[in-house]
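pasting UPF0060 membrane protein Francci3_2786 for the record, 110 residues
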Amino acid sequence: MGVVRSLLLFVVAAVTEIGGAWLVWQGVREHRGPVWVGLGIGFLAAYGFVATLQPDAHFGRILAAYGGVFVAGSLLWGVAVDGFRPDRYDLAGAAICLLGVAVIMYARRV
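structre below
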């Protein structure tokens, strides 16, 4: 159950951080206004709290592993929201990052 909870928290973290950054981008770069920016800031703040819910107690490990989730999640967000089409190098890079997440977070430690 710990791994499932951790993975779900990584997904929530990705949605809050990537979504927050996207909202700020929309507010500033796409001129959608301060409400979008404010919502984005709120989502980004929520991301900071979500990370604290991870079962592992080591901040550095959590953030290092989340970096890989962020890479893959950003590509997925681009596909779903912005019509981005990743090439094979994007996909290979994301796969390598997710492998890193698995090693950092879930490898059996002795």
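Residues 14 and 70 are 6 Å apart (CA to CA).
The mean pLDDT is 96.
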